Queue: 2 jobs
Job 1
Amino acid sequence: MSDYRVSYADLRGLASAIKRLNSDIRGIQGNITSLDSNMQIMRTEVQEKVADVDEKLTELKKLFDDEKFVAAARHELEQLSKDVANKFGHYKKVRNSAIGILQATDVEFIRNNAIKVVTEELFLGTPNYWLVPALLALAFWIEDNQDSANKAVKEAIVRDHIKTSLFFALISRRSGRLLACKAWLSRYFNLQSPSELSSETIVVLDALTIGAFGIESGQECMETAIKWRKAINCDPPQKATEIARWKSVLMLKREPLSLENKSQYKMLQEYSPNWKALESSLEDHHIHQKLYGMFSGIMDAEVVIQTKIKEAIDDLLMSLVTDYDAEELPFRREIRKCTLKVKYASDYKAHWEAEEEVHQATCQFGGLLKNLFMRSVVMDSKQISVSNSTQKVAVALAKDWIAGAHQEIVSSQLESLPDQISIKIDTWEGETREGDNEEELLKSLTEYLNNREQEELLKNKRSGLTTGFAIACVLIPIWMRFESLKAFFSGNGELQVGLILGGIALAAGTLGLSKFNLKLNKEKIEADYKKKWEEYSGILKATIAEAFNYREEIAQHQASSKKFFEFISNLDVRQYLATTYNNVRQLMMSN
């Protein structure tokens, strides 16, 4: 067996190998840490992508379903329109004849006998329709045949007492017979109940608000309406019903935030866990400014009234005979519903529920006022509309219920408005109400990062010592396994000493390198956390600034809320009644 001596060169080579091994281990540790971090980032990104894909697929499916839904609605709408034309097309001729007869008597170009012949033909061709005997009565009045006129009136009353009374109230007013108008109008109101008003009462209010019934009749009608309102307010269940009715109308103005508005809160969207609640609350509060704009626009709008009473009443008469026929109503309801389906697809239900009462044959007084509002504001302009003066009166009469509905909305908003705005950066969490505790949050964030840094440093220290010890435990046995180890047991003292010195050198070198690595890692950790502090504190300050802006915007909307409530509460219906028409000539009938 050849002798083996441990030289300084051997020890230096071994130390160099240990250093390289330690460096490789550090590199592996760094790669593992980096890989773990990258996997966390990748996992988060994958989850976000999956969520985005799911959202896109859901949107795509909705678009596909909506397309089929709208196609079916269009087909149904086309079929309903054909059904109405087939079943009620002959009514159109009668309705047009009503205005034609009135205008013919104005110019006196048509012979009275010719008018009677036309109406008799309509009577024979359109059985059971209330308007035909009413027109026949007009023809008899024109030729001064009182007995036949009275018989025709009785037949019209049998067919539809309510519409006939209103029809002749308007005809009497058109001809300047104010006493007859008042009598027919009184007859009409005696047939009405505030709990079950016929839908054509809208025409009454429309005529009332433009002064078509004259001062005395107009005031009597308005006092009746005010009494109906007081009766409802004295009945808590009924009042609650009206408030709920108007609440559904007001809530139609609640819409999602615009992209421009949302872009003002990018930090909150990313770093506030309760952003969804904040967003929902902000959408709730946006309603007040929209409501004030809509209602003030109605009440401040210039009232446009026909300069001639004949033209105004002709419009009212056409509305009466065209829009409120009970036989057609079910078809018109379905046509309107299909129209909403085509416009809003599967989202049509909220719009239909809000205006469904508009298409009922009868309704309560509060429902009537809501219907007036819905016809002229929420519904499409092509749908049945009323004058802007009627809009004003409807809103003023319903002011108690609108204000009550608004107060309920405000109370609900206050309950759902988050008291605190949560902030989460990495695993640090804090909260602020309006950004007034920035110093406290920065202190908390600093403590959080300091604690994290100390944990990392302690972990690094332990890891370094463990690594050094592990390397020593591995390399020393390898060192001991040299072939010349056998000489140790054969009593070779010189080799024995060399091996001991080599082991000591290995241990010392390993521990020295570990200490050196600890220092390098410590410096890196400290630099990383300094960078994190700059990044996280910047995020926190920006998020706090948005929290302040959020509360400011909420406060602005709450100010709009008070403004709207005061505006509605101070309305006085009497100030929205138009003055009556004057100097109306008697054209057809004498007293």
Job 2
Amino acid sequence: MLVVPLPPSDAAGDGGGSASSSRRLAIVSECGRQGSRAQQQVTYLDPLRDLMFTVDHEKQECTGAVERRQSVNVSAEVDGIDEKLSKPFKIALEVELDRYITERYGERSGGSSSSSSGAAASAVHVFKGKEVGGSVGLNILISSRQARPRGLWAGAWSSNWRVSFKPGQAEPVKLAGMIEFTTHYSEDGNVQFKRTAKPRAAIQETMDPGRFALAMVAAIRGLEDKFHEATEVHCETFGEESLKSLRRVLPLSKERFDWRPLRHALVRDMKAIGKEGGS
């Protein structure tokens, strides 16, 4: 996933259900793609503002954004039924995710300074459930990137969450996620680190959109915190465990090296005596 700033536009307002989003950032993802990936400029959907924006993948920047036009075919009508049922849950999730992103990433969301830059955004896409008009399908995306060229490092964090349920169902909702963290450090070398996880959780609330959104974001927060803590532990023990396992216990001769200098001096003297005796 890629976070890109949307170009300013008087016609394309910040529609949707989120509280406010002066950052005007959008997430480039597969679930929002509307065109072929073979093209240099591909169109994507921004579900927060109901915009169609075009991305130049070679330059990794947004080249334009327009309001989405509603189609009048049968497929669009079916999609409209699912979107209408999912809309209250989608809007509530957008509000809570906006708060979560602001709290977790603070001023770095879309901000930059002379020494570092970063961006963070979220999106909620609606997908077709098992039954048309009977189930809610939501795909939640969170993406963040940070870079400090002067420090010779850059990193990216992304998480993808998926739920499908019937409003008011008795059984808990299964939340399935995918978290990915990558970083690149280039001082005196070229070090890249990548770690992924596929966490799971259960959401009890399925009737009230507000309580559902709170439970969803709380579950996502807990799973992301757990992944972050596990990554820190992995980095702290990486040198003692992973790197140490790459070292040979014995050299190619299968004999341990004797570090006692006196023994090596004795061998050298014995070889010298042997050469003198044979001459």
